[in-house]
Design brief:
Elements (H helix, E strand, L loop, with lengths): L1 E4 L5 H16 L8 E4 L11 H8 L17 H4 L2 E4 L2 H10 L7 E4 L20 H25 L1
Helix pairs in contact: 1-5, 2-5
The chain binds 4-nitrophenyl phosphate.
4-nitrophenyl phosphate (4NP) binds next to loops.
Length: about 150
């Protein structure tokens, strides 16, 4: 499972942290490799944005060890599922998609049909509400994703 956004400092590390917490709480026996990456290289090596870290910590999720990296071609062989936060990220991933890809590429919020939206808005230039939304949408989609995994596991 690879979560992907633009910078890998706001949305995708948050989604990764939320999904890890859910796995620990609800399915500790399930063996799933979880990581995140960005389509851009602006923030490679940086920890998550402090606003993301603080918002996540209020929900018991520590993102401080994460370091941004860019998506690589190897990710398409390493992961079964690559989950994009928005359509721009999805387009970038589809442009990289090798002919033989193990990974399927889709929008993360397809796992939360009740939200009535398919994109996690970029919170970088928004206020605190934007960061709370990233957490809320990630929580909803993580539940749907775990349910889907449990069906095939
Ligand atoms: P992310 O947010 O894609 O959720 O990590 C962003 C982080 C940085 C920038 C844009 C989006 N930036 O332009 O530097």
């Amino acid at each position: 499972m690879l979560f992907v956004c633009l910078g890998n400092i706001c949305r995708s590390p948050t989604a990764e942290g939320v999904f890890r917490q859910l796995l620990e709480q609800e399915a500790p026996g399930l063996q799933v490799e979880v990581d995140s990456a960005g389509t851009a290289d602006y923030h490679v090596g940086d920890p998550p944005d402090l606003r993301s870290q603080r918002a996540a910590l209020r929900r018991g999720i520590d993102l401080s060890d994460a370091r941004a990296r860019q998506v690589t071609i190897d990710d398409f062989a390493r992961f079964d599922l690559i989950l994009a936060m928005d359509r721009d990220n999805l387009r970038e991933l589809e442009a990289m998609l090798p002919e033989r890809s193990r990974a399927r590429v889709q929008l993360f919020l397809e796992y939360a049909p009740d939200l009535g939206r398919l994109e996690v808005p970029d919170p970088y230039y928004r206020d605190a509400r934007g960061f709370e939304e990233v957490l809320d949408f990630s929580a909803a989609a993580s539940r749907g994703l775990l349910a889907a995994l449990q069906k095939v596991a």
